[in-house]
Each structure stands twice: as C-alpha cells, then as structure tokens.
Amino acid sequence: MQESRTFISRDEAQAPFFAGIDLGGTNIKVGVVDDLGRPLSWLKIPTESQRGPDEGARRMAEAVREAARQAGIEYRELVGAGLGSPGTMDIPAGMLLEPHNLPGWYHFPIRERVSQYAELPVTFVNDANAAAYGEFWVGTGRDFHSMVLFTLGTGVGCGVIIGDLLIEGEHSHCAECGHIIVDSSPTARMCGCGQPGHLEAYASATGLIKRAEEALANDTDSVLHAWLAEGRRLTPLLLAEAAQQAQDALALELIFETARWLGIGAVDLAHTIDPDGIVFGGAMTFGGADDALGRAFLDRIRQEFRQRAFPVLAEAIKIDFASLGGDAGYLGAAGIARLAYRRQSDRPPAGAS
Amino acid sequence: MQESRTFISRDEAQAPFFAGIDLGGTNIKVGVVDDLGRPLSWLKIPTESQRGPDEGARRMAEAVREAARQAGIEYRELVGAGLGSPGTMDIPAGMLLEPHNLPGWYHFPIRERVSQYAELPVTFVNDANAAAYGEFWVGTGRDFHSMVLFTLGTGVGCGVIIGDLLIEGEHSHCAECGHIIVDSSPTARMCGCGQPGHLEAYASATGLIKRAEEALANDTDSVLHAWLAEGRRLTPLLLAEAAQQAQDALALELIFETARWLGIGAVDLAHTIDPDGIVFGGAMTFGGADDALGRAFLDRIRQEFRQRAFPVLAEAIKIDFASLGGDAGYLGAAGIARLAYRRQSDRPPAGAS
Fold first, then answer.
1. How far apart are CA B35 and CA A49, in angstroms?
2. Where are the domains of chain B?
3. Burial per residue of A144-163, b for 16 or more beta-carbon CB atoms within 10 angstroms, e otherwise
4. Choices 3.30.420.40, 3.40.50.2300, 3.30.200.20, 3.40.50.1820: CATH for B3-133+327-346
C-alpha cells in the first residue's frame, strides 16, 4: 500500500521541521524536511478519492504523523505543514472548489480540516506553485532570486516566484501561463479550457499528439505509420522513440516544434517578469538532461528564446530543466509552510503592546 | 520657463513629505506630496538634455527645493525623493545606461548625483513603473492589492504591482509587456525593437498608423483619403476625428482593432499575474472616460478580454482607464520614495544590537 524512502538522518538535520503534502488524483506524497529543505522521510499513499475529502484529510494527517515517525523526530518538533493541491481552489479561504482530479471533493475546507487532524498550522497552495517553490528553494532555482517554472505534461502548468513571494493571484488564478495566447490567428488551435491559441494547446502532451495526428495525415515516410498499424498508441513517448531509435524526421520536427512554442512562452514570461531563470519540468521533457533528446529539446527552447527575447535578457536569463522530478511538490509545499512559520515568528506575540 | 500649480495646503497635509520627479526627454515634472499621496505643489521645467546629465541632476535637485518652497514646508520635512526615468537603465545601480530620449545621458549614476545635490535619499525606477505605482497608490488602482498598467503612446509601456511590491525584474527589464508576442505567425508585424509579433507592433500609435496606411491602400470609401489629400497628417487623433466627426467605418474599425489586441494582451497578463485590475492610460486612449470614442474603445478591450479570459477572471478583474493623466509619474515616483522610507523606518537603527 505504501512506498517510502528515507534521506538525511535526524543528527544531520537542522530544526525546525516541516511537512510537505503533495495531493494528487492518484497518490498523496508526504515528506518531512528540515529548515534547509533536506528531506528526512518520504512516503506515498493512494489518494482513494472515492472515500471522500474528510477521510482524505484524516489520512493526510496520519501520513504526516507517520512521516515524522520515520524521520525520527518528536511530533512537536514539526512546526507546520504545507499542502499543495490541484485546482480549482480558493487559496485565501483554504477551500477546494471543483478539483478535476478529485471528483466529489467539492467546496471542501481542506486546509482547516487537515490542520485539525494534524494539529498543525497548514498552508495551502496550488500544486504547480508548490512545485515551483520546491525548485526555487532547493532545486534548479536555489541560487535564483526569482523564477518561472513550466510543468509540462497533459497540460502546461506554471508557477512564478519573485523573491520570497509566491505569486498566487487575487483570485487564486495566478501563473496559469499555459493559457497565455501564443497564436491569435483565426486558425488557432483550441485549448482544453475551451479558448483558442493558448500555449497549452501547442506545447502540452495533448497538443503534441494533436499536431502529430495532423502531420501524419500529410506524411507517408514516418516510421510511426507502421508502429501505429501494429497497434501501438500515439504518445509523446512513442514520438521520442521514433525520433531517437528510428531517426524519424517527422517525430523530431514535432518535438522541436513543441520546443519552439515553449520558447515563445518563455519570451512572454521574460518580458513580463524578468526573472533569473525559466525552468522546465514535468513528464514531457523527453528524458530531460539525462537524455540526448531531452538536451536537444532544451537547446531548441533556448534557441527560440534567445532569438526572440531582448538581447540583455536573452543573455542573462537562465533556461534550464527542473531537477527535483516528482519531489518538487512536497518539498515546495514544505518550503511554503516554512515561509509562513518564519513570517509568524517575526511578528510580536499576540496581545503584545 | 516654468508652469506650476498648487494643490492641498500645508495645514491639510499629513507629514512626512516626499518629492516625486518624472524625468522625460522634453520636460521634468516635480511634485511634493504628503504621506497620503496628496500633492502640495507641482512644477515643470524643460529637460534641456543637451546641457548634460550632471547639470540635469543639479536642476532636478533645485526643482525639488523650489517645489518644497511652493508647498510651504521646511526642506527638512522632506524625507525622500523618487525619480522615474526612461530607460535603458540599471535600477539596482541607480544608473542610466542608454536612454533613447536623453541623448548623451549615457552610463550616468543619476540616482546618486540627484541624491547628492538634493541632500535626500533618492529611489530610482523606470517611468512606466512609476506611473503604474501612481495609479496604484492614488489613482484607478487605489483600492487594488495588485495591478497592471498599460501606458499607450508611441510605444506600449507597462508596470506591474503586486501588494506593495513593484516588480522591477532581475535585469531592470520587468513589465516590458509591450513586447509580449501576440502574433506568432510568419506574417507578424515587426516591432520597433526589431522582433516580430509584439503587442506594441499592433496596439501602439506607431502600430495603428502602420495598420491604417495598409488599410487605406485597400480602401476607397474612407474620408481619410480626402483629408490626407488636403495635406493633413495620418495620426491617431486624425483617425479619432474621422471615426467621430465623420462616422468613418474604416477609422473606427482600425481603432477597435487596437482594442482587440489590447484585450489579448490583457488576457496574457491576467493569466500570468491574476491582478485586481488591468488599467489603460497614456495619450492613445481616444479621450478616455470623458469621450464617447474612448468609452467605446474601452468597451471593446473589455469585450475581447471577457471573451478570452478564464470565466472567473473575466468577471473578477477590473478593466479600466487610468485616472491621473500626466501626474501619475511624479506621484508614483514619490510613492516609491515613501515605500523605501517606510521600509527604512521599520529597520532597527544602525548599530543597534
């Protein structure tokens, strides 16, 4: 039922400690980290969303206690927990509204409920922002003062950090940069959200597959025709295989086209935020830095970015892969709990004059 | 040589006081405001940039002293000055780099020099950000927690405020939102900055005139043909006159097309920042809220925005005109000086343990 692994020991760790909770439609990941963002323990439990949000909140709190046990710390040494959750949500109210991945967990006061069960102060952010904060705190962005993270998968998620400020938006809709308009032409592709021309309609897995289907209809040379005839499914992974194992020109061009759209999106963020770095993570990074295809993909993003950004920014802004993989979410959630704890500690005690 | 007008009296005003300096290629505006952002005095002197940056800094400092005299305050009651300047610039270093509008004022430590001559701490921001902070502090955005300002003129300027944070960027290039890519097609228009498809290439005065020239080449009905034959110049004002006085369909369509591009730009900012409001100011607002054409222009921006933004944001984010006109710059610069003063005052005195 439960995977787990342990990282640094209690003796190496620096108090205080924070729990990070990464709530997903399939699994919940929970970790305990020290004040420097180093994990002491990590575990994963199935979400079992059909059991409802209150039971979910109870099980998250239980997982936090278990993670504290595995970390070898006293529960009272844990001073806060951070929860990263899929949307839609009302962040200031700590409410889940209508999360797509959690059917039935609607209009639920999840922050308060987890806080009650866990007997801890709980911070609440969206999952893309949690991942962004994770990469900012202890990942690729650890030396940055400000950063944008694009998370590439079925959709295109985004998080924006400026200083120690996680930009959440006034209506819990900040950094939905998958939905910036990159194509305003009458023939623009339709995004999953129902609007035309968004970055996500071009650069997500969904967008890539759509472009691949169309390109295959006008192509006879690609090895993909034969593979699909064998019953294989058209996925980003299949395109990567065709590009790498079969040097398939069409597959490579489709992957590079994705990179060009991301380069355009990165320019828009650079000209709006001017961050230290723009970082790309998620499943659809074609193996990332460990893979020749991933590195070629990143080079194409950089190429488009450098060609189109202001020269100063083309040179100064770092374009790179994320480095924490699936750990970014719980690490970032814990980091946000730490920010709240520090802000709290700076305040005079209640009732002080 | 010098216009000036006075606003609230010393008796009504609330100390401390701040000077705001709006440095432009033609004029320098200087005002003194109280702690609530209400101006006590205001004056304008010609920039006379040919006399060089050091002389400029000296004259700005003199203008601050004169504005303090006109405000009826003791100079020592003035606790800081804010300088808003055209770019390019290095904000942390307080340096002008190569400002287009100030030939010869290159690589000049303007913040320090104005500070020396004025014997005041001086903050330094770019002019678009100063105007944005002015509208945020005491203009259209005074009830907002976060705001985006687009300044429409020869170019498209932008400023982004989140909380009390003016987003300046890591390389002094934040909020160059005139240069987000709104057209990625191969036929995209070239922006003044040399890159294709930027918002500024479509929605600035320059972009509008370019579009008008092209449209007139394919049109025979417009009254503009006759007006241009009479030797009148094709300007945004002439298009406004044709649209209003002559009900010219082509002119109106060109103006509304500008609004549609701005609506697209506003969606990108909404989906990136999720602010309380997105505000449009500057010379190219077609009379603004005081004019039927201005109001129709704003309606078209809103229409495009509401059609393309996430439904929650389409409803929640206010789209409006700026309200401070040419005063936004010096008011905002003074407001930024006030922010710095407050931050400074929160700190323990130097040497305290």
1. 53
2. 3-133+327-346, 144-322
3. bebbbbbbbebbbbbbbbbe
4. 3.30.420.40
Helix (H) or strand (E) holding B62: helix B53-71
Contact B38, B63 (CB under 8 A): no
pLDDT above 50 (res B353):
no
| pLDDT tens per residue, range A170-195 | 998 888 999 999 999 999 999 999 99
Cross-chain CB nearest to B165 (options A165, A169, A276): A165
Give the closest of A171, A193, A264 to B184, CB-based: A264
Measured distance CA(B122)–CA(B115) in Å, rounded: 5
CA–CA dist A122, A105 (Å, integer) = 18
Distance CA A179, CA A216 (A): 26
- State the CATH class of domain B144-322: alpha beta
Q: Which residues of A touch B269 (CB under 8 A)?
A: 272
For residues A161 and A151, the answer to whether their CB atoms sit within 8 Å is no
This complex has an ipTM of 0.91
Q: Which two tokens stand for residue B270?
A: 């909404």
Output the CATH code of domain A143-322.
3.30.420.40
CA–CA distance from B149 to each of B187, B214, B294 (Å)?
28, 29, 17
Give the DSSP letter string of A18-76: EEEEEE-SSEEEEEEE-TTS-EEEEEEEE--GGG-HHHHHHHHHHHHHHHHHHHT--GG
Residues of A with CB under 8 A from a CB of B: 88, 145-146, 158, 160, 162-163, 165, 167-177, 179-185, 193, 195, 264, 267-276, 308, 310, 312-313, 316-317
- For residues A144 and A277, is the Cβ–Cβ distance under 8 A? yes
The pLDDT, as a whole number, for residue A347 is 46
The answer to whether domain B3-133+327-346 and domain B144-322 are alike in fold is yes
Tens digit of each residue's pLDDT (9 = 90 or more) over B170-209: 998 888 999 999 999 999 999 999 999 999 999 999 999 9
User: Residue A173's pLDDT is what?
Assistant: 87
Please state whether the predicted TM-score (pTM) of the whole model is above 0.90. Answer: yes
- Distance CA(B60)–CA(B340), nearest Å, equals 20
Q: What is the DSSP string of A285-316?
A: STTGGGSHHHHHHHHHHHHHHHHHS-HHHHHH
Interface test with A, best of B146, B164, B182, B184 (most A CBs within 10 A): B184
Assess whether pLDDT exceeds 60 at residue A352.
no
Q: Using omega within 30 degrees of 0 as the cis cutoff, is the peptide bond preceding B196 cis?
A: no
pLDDT of residue B346: 66
Task: Give Cβ neighbours of residue A110 (< 8 Å, ≥ 6 apart).
Answer: A53, A56, A57, A83, A85, A94, A95, A96, A124
Residue A145 identity (one-letter amino acid): H
State whether the Cα torsion B97-B103-B104-B105 is positive or negative. negative
